[in-house]
Structures are given as structure tokens and as C-alpha cells.
Description:
By secondary structure, this protein is mostly helical. The chain contains six helices and two strands. A two-stranded antiparallel sheet has the order 1-2. The longest helix has 19 residues, at about 60-80.
Amino acid sequence: xxxxxxxxxxxxxxxxxxxxxxxxxxxxxxxxxxxxxxxxxxxxxxxxxxxxxxxxxxxxxxxxxxxxxxxxxxxxxxxxxxxxxxxxxxxxxxxxxxxxxxxxxxxxxxx
Length: 111
């Protein structure tokens, strides 16, 4: 998970549509889809409810993750040391624990 993928996730969530996110970011829709899918696989959670012809709305877990990612970006923007402001492995571990605890991610092995 890198900052570019996280930025693509944020814009996709704000737009509720991968095509519009791609237009806004001046990139290809397949790149947005792949980056969002990569994040979902890494977290072990479906962050969007995909509705063919209607876009992709963030699920509740996606909206919660969006808040955390925005907070991380805010911290980055105000941090004198970029490296100390972000810790992606920590975010991943936190969200895996969240998914297991809430059982929102039924495909994750339960502890």
C-alpha cells in the first residue's frame, strides 16, 4: 500500500465512481480499480459496494477507512518529517484486527 494508491482510494470514495475518479485524477479507470482492489486485498475487506451502472459507494468500513486515510494525509501535510508521519503496516494491522473484531470481513480467518 502506498500513498498513490491511498490517494486513488480517497478520490474514488469521494466520487463514488471509479470513472469519475479517473477523470479527476487524469488517469485510467482500470488503474483506479486495480489500486482499490489492491488495498482491499491487503486489508482483507471490501471497501466499496459496486453497483454496475451506478458506481461504487463506500461501505461503512470504507467510510471509516477513508476517515483514517484523510487523517494520515492531514498528518503528512503538517509533518516536518514525512517518514515519521506514515506507517502503512500499522494501518494494515489495525484494519485487519477491526475486520476480524466486527466480522465485517467474513472471508478473513477468525482468530
